[in-house]
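Morning F.,

Quick status update on the modeling queue. The single chain you submitted on Monday has been processed. Sequence for confirmation:
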Amino acid sequence: MPKNKKKAETSSSDSDEGPIDRNPPPEKKAKMGSRTDDKEPTWVLQGKKLVKIREFKGKVYVDIREFYEKNGELLPGKKGISLTPDMWRKLLSLGDEINEAISTMC
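Structure tokens below.
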């Protein structure tokens, strides 16, 4: 007797729609728009790159970070920087000089 028996293929549908996904992907919880209403004030820069005001070990930070999705939840990734309020203010004060340097390079 041969080892590989072919079973008769049966189809319950004559449709040409293709296979039906019985496990659709979870809904993405990425916040769209310029600012989100969250426990932590959050702004979307682009895609999953977010700016958040966060508290860590009793101190406040401006967190500019790329997030990733796991089990339908957005989690902070390694790529990013957390600035103290003083560092954030310093960065803002350098805005005109930075914009001028960008203009000369473009």
